[in-house]
Amino acid sequence: MYKFKPATERIIKMHQLIRDRVIQTDAERALITTESYKRNEHVLPMIKRPRAIYDVCANMTVRVEDFEIIVGNRAKNFCGSGVEPEWEGEGWIPSMIENGIWTIQADGLYHNPEGEELKLAISPEDVEALVSIRDYWKDRTITTTANAWQPEGYDELCKLEVCANASGAPLMMMTAGHLTPGFQKIINIGYGAIRKEALDFMDAHRNNLMGEDLNKYMFYNAASIVCDAAIIMIQRYSEACLEKAKACQDESRRDELLKMADGLLWISKNPARNFWEACQAAIMYQLFLALESKYPACSFGRFDQYTWPFLKADLEAERLTMDEAQEIVDAFFLKSNCFYGAAPEFVAQITGIGNTYQHTTVGGVDPETGEDATNPVTYMALETIGRLKLHDPTISLRVNKNTPDKLWECALETSKLVGGLPLFQNDEIIIPGLMEELGFSLVDARNYALIGCQEITGSGNDYSACNGIAPPYASIHYGVVLNMVINNGVNAFNGQECSVKKGYLYEMKSFEEVKEAFKAVARYITKAQVSINNYTEYLTTQYAPLAGLSISMEGCMESGKDATWGGCKYNSYGGTATGLATVADSLTTIKYMVFDKKLCTARELYDAVMANWEGFEDLRQQILHEVPHYGNADPYADEQMKWVCDSYYDICSECYSTRTRHFKAGLYSASDHVFQGYHTWATPDGRKTGEALADATSPAQGRDINGPTAVCTSACCYDQSKFMDGLALNIRIHPSALSRDDGVEKLRDMTKTYLNNGGMEIQYNVVSTETMRAAQADPQSYRDLVVRIAGYSAYFVELNADCQNDIIRRTENTL
Length: 815
Known about the structure:
The chain is of the alpha/beta class. One of its GO terms (cellular component) is cytosol.
């Protein structure tokens, strides 16, 4: 059995501080950005935005805590949060106070209400400061610009409530984000060399800008400014370490601070020289990106691959011990946990409290040789997550036919400690899939990484926009689509009508007619949503270019094109379908009950669904217990899951934008399947209005009754290699099944078999119903219980009751 070493005292202290944090929002970034925008009122966004981030980096508070060996803060306070006024004006918190929802407490700070899972605060001075910028940003945010005009048809998409786009909601709230930045370029080349490349072009074309040279000049000008911004930010952290060292009485800590100061000064312009500098440089660049724009889900990419060469050199030169390196990795992941920001309660419930979506990938193969690339950092990353019981960042373990047994053992022991981590990603499916679906070269496909929930992306060369150009608008509510299919285009939940009407279920003469109706409505809604996404892509190129990201992305500096303009080597975007198993089970129900077995009429089934099953409980129970369900290795049910997934993929293949021909299909969710359930009318599979849909590509809750191997068999009923936006298969395992070594071996062998049979991804919740019920009754005693929802893991006690009960409802498996 794999054994985890204990963490050091200061790592334990930092972990506790993060667990106990009250996230205090401040106005510092908002004020600096506002003043910068005022000075550059009429400057083009391509230059104005880099100037603003420079001002932020040059003037924001930098912190070095007494216990830190990896530094970097997004805001003025430890684990604090700022406001991005260019997107959200004064933000959402002042209105909470003005409406009396947040109240001032004994500490002199305003706090959100007791009982909310997320603990938030703000000072009266910061509230006053945020209110002071309200008038300036009222008509100047990117969101305001996007809201000023939309293409015809957007109103229909909103009123149908068939995706996250909704009437009254902003069209754009943030930039695309879901991607893997070029950490390896930042670490191995450095800002100084990138800056010189930009300046060289500008010098060579001074007063000689012909044709495309002008666009390139604008880009390189922006690139030089953001390099200066990153350089000054990192140098200020170096200075802060020096100041801290002057006041430090502990000789050992003083020497450490001086070493940190030297390392930070060096990496402000130059390539990293050692393991600590490589890790610190990655954190600094991630921090810089967080300050540059409101990125969601910037992954850390293949952390073990781009840092291992530095650790290897340090170990060979005896500059570092393995224990010291492990503490650096611990500090790296704890620092990334500090980047979580304040969010309204309803957002936190969907995206997960404490989830930064800085997905980190370990394991996998060497890009050049294709050989397994497991190294000591691979184990260190898993050990950090396991021994500290961290639910964030999400860790994906890339596995292949040569993954060492020891690594499998480490990963499965981690899963026993931390629910749903790591995620197991199959190199043998994903690498060929990237080449076939997106045109990746073999080397680049071998170097893929995971981001966000489950999305697949290139490493530092792919503007992947996996969750759409303007998150969170990339998920169609296919349960609502099905409802409109059987109800002549009307959403029974809100009475709104779709332009595509295919009649009522009881008017359809064959099962094929039902399926064709579903595909017609799904195609119309998906293309409507993608059309709006394409519009936001156009807006992004004009108002939200990303010079800070582009300097690290392969293709951008070479071509002189921003990532949002298509400058990256690879370009794509995509969306996700949540709850397709609910749709598949519903289609199976219609086929079985109405057309094959004729156990009820189409009218009876339609009436039962429209009545939310009230008065039709006998029929509902018959469906729940007699109709075959996806997840049980039953070809009758799996046939419909295959058809639904294939149809979804086919529709996505018809979508594209100016920047790319590739709109990727995904099968994942955060906890969106719970949220979608709130707004989805009853479905023919027996699900009632308001109940959660099936999560990701998993069976509907409790419908899989033939064990985990049957779930894996069913999950392979469709070609998973097509779904290059990523997918998730959740299986819950009772802890007793893994209490002995042979249980761990069985789970490993089952996982390998599933992956060998075409499975792309799988993740396990190793937790019992009894434990979760006990945690609901006594949250404090189960504070560190981690579970996997769908696209993120979370501390169970920090989930709302619906998310908790959703996990409890899932089938509890033994081996």
